[in-house]
Specification:
- There is one protein chain.
- By secondary structure, the protein is α/β, with parallel strands linked by helices.
- The strands form 2 sheets. Strands 1, 4, 5, 6, 7, 8, 9, 10, 11, 12 and 13 form an 11-stranded mixed beta sheet that branches. The chain has a two-stranded antiparallel ribbon with strand order 2-3.
- Strand 2 and strand 3 form a beta hairpin.
- It is globular.
């Protein structure tokens, strides 16, 4: 089984580069705790899922990268040229433009149709090299103009490949009163929600808090945010004992509730990791529970807990449900779905690692903030004329706001 990644925009490409870099690093961090056979099997399973192995031993990610606004994006991709992996030439689908790069409507109605055939051709070329493809992993920021092109292209791909599951990763920008950013995000969420099977939501503000670990004076770059976000995501995607990708889709019991969030521990910035001692499981679990209690005060639709590292004779003593005090559960889910524990005895990136994947009502808090700011700007007709130029009228805005409000309402009324 293979996964094909489709990413859009500079933000999506940077995140995707970090994603594959993390997978490659984890696969090649041989773990002495497990046997050589286990290490090799883990590596083979992961590589066959995410990479194409060339005859010279070079690994190429199964991916399509699409951007319209940054002619220097190639510099990002050159970072891996000295490694044993890198993006193939077919992966790169760039169509640079000047002006209007942040106009969602222009990118949806003009650039999307222009780019679709090229993207579709590249995608089919990659798919023809794979025996079976069941999942597209889609990565983008919803706030840029390129998200408009993404929505058009993905809607068309869903029509062409209705049986393929769309797993979406959205990188939410820092909250801002910028009208265009909030309009674009609202339009993107409205379009993608109906065609996706799950949506992983990463908020830059939350990732920054993780990076700073309570030390506000610590400077954080976008690369730092991507490293943490990708590490969290890959801790869910990498092989797990007795499970196959994407086992996590079972936490989406109802397509009305498909927004997923991640909390994990420990999270060291890469440059500090070599100085940190390996924590005990009890400390990792208690830290994760503190984070959960601090962030979750809503209704949960289910959680996956993934332990990576030797847990023999220990984890059964650590009961999540007894220690969590802020989480209530929907009456519609079965008891066994409240907390599903998964294990991988092999260490992750050379260390113990614990992740909690959650589907709960607090996951729409960021969307709620965005839609409120977007509606406030719209009430003053701020920048609406830029969208009117490209087939987006007043009723389109109102429909989008209604759609996103319904997503939020469904989660907040979860009982």
């Amino acid at each position: 089984m293979s996964v094909l990644t489709i990413c859009f925009g500079t933000c999506g490409i940077r995140f995707t580069h970090s994603l594959y870099s993390t997978i490659f690093s984890d696969n090649n961090a041989s773990d002495p705790i497990v046997t050589q056979h286990v290490n090799q099997e883990y590596k083979h399973t992961s590589e066959s899922c995410f990479f194409e192995l060339r005859s010279n031993g070079y690994l190429e990610p199964r991916s399509i990268l699409i951007d319209i606004g940054d002619p220097n994006i190639g510099d990002i991709l050159k970072k891996s040229k000295n490694c044993n992996w890198g993006f193939g030439q077919n992966s790169l689908g760039f169509n640079f433009i000047e002006g209007s790069t942040n106009n969602w409507s222009y990118c949806y109605y003009v650039k999307g149709p222009e780019m679709f055939e090229d993207v579709s051709s590249r995608l089919r070329f990659e798919m023809n090299k794979i025996d079976k493809i069941e999942y597209f992993l889609i990565i983008l920021s919803p706030s840029g103009g390129c998200a408009g092109s993404a929505c058009f292209i993905l809607e068309k791909l869903k029509q062409d490949f209705p049986k393929i599951s769309f797993i979406v990763v959205l990188i939410m920008p820092y909250q801002s009163k910028d009208a265009i950013q909030n309009y674009n995000t609202s339009f993107t969420i409205s379009k993608l929600y109906s065609i996706s099977d799950s949506i992983f939501l990463f908020e830059n503000s939350v990732l920054q808090e993780v990076c700073q670990a309570g030390r506000s004076e610590v400077k954080v770059s976008f690369d730092d945010l991507n490293q943490i976000g990708c590490k969290q995501l890959i801790s869910i995607f990498q092989p797990i004992e007795h499970q196959t990708f994407p086992y996590f889709l079972s936490v989406v019991h109802d397509q009305k509730y498909k927004i997923l969030s991640l909390i994990s521990s420990p999270n060291y910035r890469r440059e500090y990791s070599s100085y940190e001692s390996t924590p005990r499981w009890e400390a990792i679990v208690n830290q994760t529970i503190r984070l959960l209690n601090a962030s979750h005060c809503g209704v949960s639709f289910g959680n996956f807990i993934v332990y990576r590292g030797d847990t023999s004779n220990y984890v059964d003593k650590l009961n999540f449900s007894e220690k969590l005090n802020s989480l209530s559960f929907s009456k519609h889910i079965l008891e066994e779905h409240k907390f599903s524990q998964m294990f991988q005895q092999r260490h992750f990136m050379g260390s113990k690692y614990l992740s909690v994947l959650s589907n709960n009502s607090t996951n729409v808090s960021a969307l709620n903030s965005v839609i409120k700011l977007a509606k406030r700007a719209f009430s003053h007709k701020a920048f609406v004329h830029h969208y009117n130029q490209y087939n987006t009228n007043i009723n389109d805005f109102k429909n989008v706001f209604s759609n996103v409000n319904q997503i939020i309402k469904d989660y907040y009324e979860l009982d």
